[in-house]
Amino acid sequence: MTVDTSKRSDKKDIKTILHQLENDAVIGISVDCVIFGFDENELKVLLIKSDLKKFEGKWSLLGDLVNNHEDLDEAAYRILKERTGMDDVYLEQVRSFGELNRHPAGRIVTIAYCSLINIQHHELKILDNELHWHRVVTLSEMAFDHQKILDVCHEWLQRRIQEHPLGFSLLPQKFSLRELQNLYEAILDVKLDRRNFRKKFFSMELLEDINEFETDVPHRPGKLYRFNYDKYQKKERKKWFGIDF
């Protein structure tokens, strides 16, 4: 969590809370938003430079304290909008992190919220030079315990994409099997066997062959498919997903 008191309307209250935290008078609750993005066949995460001197130069997740008048979901969406300007992103609560000494200001328990978006479809409305997309595979040391939070959320995402078809929202309406495999490989961070991957997806009978081929590609054009959401909704979802690559 990064507490930025300069951009809040309730500066006095937040400073009071921070003072109380330093003197063990209260336990703080914060929210950290882990926004994963898929772009150029890579999994990325949206980070901001920490504003605390102890973590100078290090990157952190998008977070802040929860106000007394709001619930956790409200806080998560408020923080995301304050940091990025985006208000069209769905967030899902993952888990809490409450280790001792995880924050230099005092005892703060944080709740991680996660989302997966197509970067090209969601515009950052706050153009802050300290707000950037980073390749997940390149990160190793972050502010606070944010590397641990990121790793846990990445594992959560890897499970989710094998249980639900959320990855299809990141692809064009018409996509090739090459694009589909690139998506899964980026999120799972593993190289998948081409023949086995295609066999498993065809066995679910949820890909529609639309009798079209890729155009303007530097390789042999592949067939284009469409995901059948109607068929997925009508069937028992666990019957279709629970993919184990």
Largest sheet data: 7 strands, mixed
Number of helices: 7
Q: Assign an overall shape.
A: elongated
Q: pLDDT below 50 for ≥5 consecutive residues: which ranges?
A: 4-12
Determine and state the CATH class of the largest domain: Alpha Beta
Cα-to-Cα separation, first versus last residue: 34 Å
Radius of gyration: 21 Å
Structural class: alpha+beta
- In CATH terms, what is the architecture of the largest domain? Alpha-Beta Complex
Q: Helical amount among residues, as a percent range? A: 25-40%
CATH topology of the largest domain: Nucleoside Triphosphate Pyrophosphohydrolase
User: On the 0-100 scale, what is the average pLDDT?
Assistant: 87
Q: Give me the CATH superfamily of the largest domain.
A: Nucleoside Triphosphate Pyrophosphohydrolase
Query: What number of structural domains do the residues give?
Result: 2
Describe the structure in your own words.
This protein is an alpha+beta fold and 245 residues long. It has 2 domains: 5-161, Nucleoside Triphosphate Pyrophosphohydrolase; 166-240, Winged helix-like DNA-binding domain superfamily/Winged helix DNA-binding domain (Arc Repressor Mutant, subunit A, Orthogonal Bundle). The protein contains 7 helices and 10 strands. The chain has helices spanning 11-22, 72-84, 146-163, 177-188, 194-204, 229-234, 237-240; strands at residues 28-39, 42-49, 59-60, 62-65, 92-97, 108-118, 131-135, 175-176, 207-213, 223-227. The strands form 2 sheets. Strands 1, 2, 3, 4, 5, 6 and 7 form a 7-stranded mixed β-sheet that branches. Strands 8-10-9 form a 3-stranded antiparallel β-sheet. β1 (28-39) and β2 (42-49) form a beta hairpin. The model is unreliable at 4-12 (pLDDT under 50).
